[in-house]
Design goal:
22-stranded antiparallel beta sheet; mainly beta; 6 helices; single chain; globular
């Protein structure tokens, strides 16, 4: 690409884009009570301004709890929590620089470019000499007028009836109501997209109400060395969702941010929707212990969901557990240093129906509306097309789990250890399957599709290393987990996670026999000194590089994750240090496709200074403009150790505080994400472009990194 002479650096996009964020958080609470009446009131305010200037988050919250003993046999309680949120999309990251990603555009936007166009001062500069690029400040501007507002009400009331001391009945009714409004506006001048649309606005509103009615009868009695607890109950849940939306463009006035000023609201730019679902559950539990040495518990619950087919919507899920407190046996009496030793184990099943649409088992249709007011359409009728295939046997996804554990406590509870081994097998996995095109107009179906297993080991250690005026406590946990996709019924292979537009290849392949999220591509054997291109390994030996030479090139699943907290206390000072990390996981650094690809006029990382330039040159960076594939070239070790939180506080004491009725005065300081030790070259090893997706993990593609933050605060109690 040939650039004009005389271009010089004039804009530091990091300084222009990233600012110092601030957070304010205030909480106040009041509680008091008697034997007959108790109450608790609290209120809070939080205000965050992100590291990207236009991003913000505000929250107001209020909570009230009250409990009254109306009669000796009747207790009434009520709980109300209300919160109001508002934020905008200014900090939301897109997938890459050319599609609105702020993180990558900060790196890729050339420094020679000014913020605003010198010839059109009201417009952002966009003359990047062939590069499909939007500057970070224009990306931010596209979201600066977006507003996400939501208020949520959680309220419940319950009554506890005591028939006899051993027999009680509790009934609870609760409501969870959420109202959300999402609005957006782009003026027709400042941004490229806004000019293309002559201004654009949107308004989307939704309301969700969830009602729950629980009834539980409990019998709890202890006689001699025996203890018996029996519980039975039911739970009813009903959900009602409503939404509507409208989108408009071609504004008459750039400064009126309302849809009333839009000249064009398209036929498909407005609509509404609604859905309902419900669950009915019955459950029971029996627990027995003898002398606190032998403990046995049996549970059973049956659930029916409206999301599943009527012939298969009820599922029964039993569970059993047992424990043996060895430390209470006579043959353990001589071990004075041992406080508690318990061996436990269990087996149980749980059901899952989340992730399904509210009418997943039904065959649904799309309606194509007709602009009947246009010439020639007066007699036209809407067309109907099939949206999906119906599922006549859709039922619960079931997870069966076996676990064996040990709890150990010694030296007057100064050392406590808990260990667990578990094995989970999930059958009838709920999945949306794409089928080959056939006679049916639709080729997607919700099915019970596969089998997956998880096995692992977890250990937690708590120790009181020093006690007294100077104390030191340590909490350590470590977790090993290995998952495996065992079976798939119809679609045998799932590809996911396309990254760079230049590559246009899926980076993840999921298939039976492997862990979820495996990275898929070519094995790179370095740069060819003669051509400057990456050399890919010919796995099938046919003498040429084709798609059949792709294989698994990385695993995002760590061998183990861990965390450790050390807390030190001395004369009112308390210092807490929390470390966390992972080991053995890979990261697919897709950002490097944008920062090292040298495809166009985007700014690149300094690594490309070592690129191949002439035949015979030895280097590990390919030539400019070379179209690369998903390969081991982009796979990096994602292991890390992070100082996640460091907190220091001091408890102020003195007669003056007591005189003023202050029971606690504690200033504190907290630092988050203070230090990270890692070999990963990206901004943050603890990110994933696909969020919490279980099928796609460990891909960094201009992903918003976690921020380092410092908090100063005061806890004050009267």
């Amino acid at each position: 690409i040939s650039l004009p002479d005389g271009l010089t650096d004039q804009t530091d996009w990091f300084d222009e884009t990233y600012k110092t964020g601030t957070t304010q958080n205030y909480q106040v609470s009041v509680s008091q009570g008697t034997d007959k009446l108790r109450y608790f009131l609290s209120a809070g305010y939080q205000n965050e301004k992100g590291i990207i200037e236009s991003s913000f988050y505000k929250r107001y919250n209020f909570r009230a709890n009250i409990e009254s003993e109306v009669r000796k046999w009747l207790k009434i309680s009520a709980n109300i929590a209300y919160s109001d949120y508002s934020s905008n999309g200014g900090g939301t990251m897109g997938e890459n620089a050319s599609r609105g990603g702020v993180v990558l555009s900060v790196i890729n936007t050339p420094k020679y470019a000014p913020v605003m166009d010198p010839e059109n001062p009201n417009q952002y500069y966009n003359n990047f000499y062939g590069a499909n690029l939007t500057s970070p400040l224009e990306n931010i501007a596209r979201d600066s007028n977006d507003r996400d507002k939501e208020n949520r009400l959680l309220a419940s009331g319950s009554a506890l009836i005591t028939f006899i001391p051993e027999l009680t009945f509790k009934t609870t009714f609760s409501i969870d109501r959420r109202n959300a409004i999402n609005t957006g506006f782009l003026d027709p001048i400042t941004t490229t997209w806004g000019r293309n649309q002559f201004g654009e606005g949107s308004d989307s509103r939704n309301q969700n109400t969830v009602l729950t009615f629980d009834n539980v009868l409990t019998y709890d009695n202890h006689f001699n060395k025996h203890g018996l607890n029996v519980m039975a109950g039911s739970s009813w849940t009903d959900s009602d969702y409503r939404n509507n939306w409208v989108n408009g463009s071609h504004y008459r006035n750039a400064f009126i941010q309302t849809l009333n000023a839009a000249n064009m609201i398209g036929l498909n730019g407005a609509g509404s929707g609604a859905s309902e679902w419900g669950i009915m559950s019955y459950f029971a539990r029996v627990s027995y212990n003898y002398d606190s040495k032998y403990l046995i518990t049996a549970n059973v619950r049956t659930d029916g969901s409206s999301r599943l087919h009527p012939d298969h919507r009820w599922g029964v899920f039993p569970s059993f557990s047992a424990a043996w407190r060895m430390s209470s046996e006579e043959f353990m009496e001589g071990l004075d240093w041992l406080d508690d030793l318990k061996i436990r184990g269990g087996w149980g099943q749980t059901g899952n129906q989340s992730g399904l649409g509210d009418y997943a088992y039904l065959q649904r249709y799309n309606i194509n509306r007709i602009e009947w007011y246009k010439e020639g359409n007066s007699n036209a009728v809407p067309t109907i097309s099939q949206a999906n295939l119906r599922t006549t046997d859709l039922t619960w996804e079931t997870t069966s789990q076996v676990n064996v554990g040990l709890d150990f406590s010694a030296f007057k509870s100064r050392l406590n250890i808990s260990m667990d081994y578990y094995y989970k097998r999930t059958t009838d996995m709920l999945m949306n399957v794409t089928l080959p095109s056939g006679a049916a107009a639709a080729n997607t179906i919700a099915r019970n599709e596969g089998v997956m297993t998880n096995r692992g080991f977890e250990m937690a250690i708590n120790s009181h290393n020093f006690v007294g005026e100077f104390s030191w406590d340590t909490d350590f946990n470590i977790s090993f987990n290995k998952n495996k996709l065992e079976e798939l019924a119809l679609q045998k292979v799932y590809y996911d996670a396309k990254t760079s537009e230049q590559v246009n290849e899926y980076a993840v392949r999921n298939e039976p026999g492997r862990s979820l999220g495996g990275f898929y591509g070519y094995i790179s054997d370095g740069v060819d000194p003669q051509t400057g291109e990456l050399m890919y390994r010919d796995l099938n030996g046919d003498g040429k590089i084709t798609a059949t030479d792709r294989t698994y090139i990385g695993n995002p699943n760590p061998l183990f994750t861990f965390g450790m907290t050390n807390t030190f206390s001395w004369k009112g000072f308390t210092l807490s240090i929390f470390l966390q990390g992972s080991y053995g996981n890979d990261i697919f650094n897709a950002s490097r496709m944008e920062t090292e690809g040298m495809y166009d006029g985007k700014n690149q990382s300094t690594r490309v200074l070592n690129r191949w330039r002439e035949p015979g040159q030895q280097t590990d960076v390919p030539k400019a403009g070379y179209t690369m594939h998903n390969s081991t070239y982009f796979i990096e070790d994602g292991s890390y150790l992070r100082l996640k939180d460091l907190s220091l506080s001091y408890d102020v004491t003195g007669p003056l505080l007591k005189k003023w009725g202050i029971t606690r005065l504690q200033p504190y300081f907290t630092a988050t994400n203070l230090l990270t030790w890692t070999g990963y070259s990206g901004m943050d090893p603890e990110v994933n472009q696909w969020g919490n997706s279980g099928a796609v993990q460990g891909i960094d593609w201009g992903t918003y990194p976690q921020c380092r933050s410092f908090v100063f605060g005061i806890n004050l109690e009267f």
